[in-house]
Structures are given as structure tokens and as C-alpha cells.
Amino acid sequence: MNTPMINRRTFLSQSACLALLPVLGGGLSASTKPPATAAAASVSAFLLPDLGYAFDALEPHIDAETMQIHHGKHHAAYIKGITKALENAGLQPPPSILELFSKLPEYPEPLRTAIRNHGGGHYNHSLFWESMSPSPQVLNPEDPLVLEITSTFGSMDAFRERFATAAMGRFGSGWAWLIATPDGLAVTSTPNQDNPLMKGAVEAEGIPLLGIDVWEHAYYLKYQNRRADYIQAWWNTVDWSVVSARYAAAVA
Ligand code: MN3
């Protein structure tokens, strides 16, 4: 049995991820609490979060150049976009990112589209960086998330297959997700930078526990058109202790 080691990094990332998520049935209670860490604070302040590891730390699975451009250019551009959109709309100080998503239908265009594209881009990438680690933790079979995944999908392998199928089936750019809903766990996918927190905008709403970026910018330098190879390699970077902490926060 492999018991996850709780070290400082794990603690910090778990604290951070709690502040990124609402609670099932609890509306926005998590968003009204002050951010627990600098990483969480950077998300609510629309700032680029530190990766917590070096650009080359995820090699050979994700290459350093991809990480550098993805974090420093793509993610930074989404932050610039949402910041400008909120300024243009006169929303100062800006609502929390979770409030922007949960009240999406109430915002007029072009702000609504900016929240989906740029706000979504900021949130999704913050969650994505935090889900990966150069020393990813695995979970023991009694972990509540493992039990729930097994009960829902049959096994961890069956879940991974379902998730990869969703990621492969997303035509063009988007994300595949594991989400917590009031009815249990589900796998879904969204186009562009949409995510399952966006009220009224997506096929399946829920709280994201894990997401994979399947935009070509996430993998093209190393994998070119081989999305399946990228997905398979990416599993080696997933820090399950973070995903489990998100699940615990979502159902708390
Ligand atoms: Mn991306």
C-alpha cells in the first residue's frame, strides 16, 4: 500500500486548491473565505501563480519549452484579457472568479464571453498546474476518492479510459474533466476555455476535480498531432493527493 506522504508542498497545494473550489450544495462559501496561500491568492487576484516546480520538472512527460510558453505566454494572456474586461466593465474591485462563473448569465456581452474565454483560461490553467507534480502522489485503496471512482466507473483503470476517451473526443480545443456533482462523480468535456463551474454555459455542471488541457498548445511541440500519446504521458504527472483534497473539499 502506498500512503501519500504529506510534505510541505502537498500541504500548500492542498490548501491552495481548497480556495479554488466551491462546495457542493454550499454555493459560494469557499469563495468568501480568504485565500489560504499565495497560490490561491494569485488566482483570486487574477495574477499568474507560481508553478511550484521548474519548467523542466515534468520531463520527459511534458517538455520545458511547452511549460514555459504555456505558463508564461498563454496563461499570462488570459489574465491580461480578464483583467482588461473587468476594468472595461467597471467591475472594481472585481468579483471572485467563482462568482463570475456562477453568475455568468447575469453579465452582458462582451463581458460574458470574456469571462468564459479569459476568466476560464485563468482558472483552468491554475487548476491544471496544481494538478501536476514532479513527485506525484498516489492514493491508497481506502482513500474516499478512490472508493468513489471505483464505485462510479468500476475501477481506476476504467475511469482513466473514460477520461481519455472524453479528452480524445473533444474536437478542436478544450478540456476533459472529472467533476463532482450532487449526483456523484462524472466525466465531461468542454470546448475552448469553458469549465463545468460556468452556469448555463456547459453540458454538465459540477465542481472540477481534475482537468486536462487538450489545446494543441499544451502538447504540440513534443507530441505534434499525437494527442493520445500526450494524454497517456500526462497521467504520470497527476498528483492524486491534490485531486483527493479537491474531492474532500467539494463534498465537505
Ligand atoms: Mn492551455
Structure commentary:
- The radius of gyration is 17 Å and the shape is globular.
- By secondary structure, it is mainly alpha-helical.
- The two termini are 26 Å apart.
- The protein has 11 helices and 3 strands.
- Mean pLDDT is 89; it is low at 1-12 and 27-37.
- Strands 2-1-3 form a 3-stranded antiparallel sheet.
- Helix 1 runs parallel beside helix 3 (38-44), helix 1 packs parallel to helix 11 and helix 4 runs antiparallel to helix 6 (111-131).
- A hairpin with a 2-residue loop joins strand 1 (174-181) and strand 2.
- Bound molecules: manganese (III) ion.
- Residues 70, 74, 125, 213, 215, 217-218 line the site of manganese (III) ion.
Gist of the model:
The protein is mainly alpha-helical and 252 residues long.
Chain-wise SSE layout:
Blueprint lengths: L7 H11 L10 H4 L5 H7 L19 H25 L8 H6 L8 H21 L12 H10 L2 H14 L4 E8 L2 E8 L15 E7 L6 H4 L3 H8 L5 H11 L2
Antiparallel strand pairs: 1-2, 1-3
The structure holds manganese (III) ion (MN3).
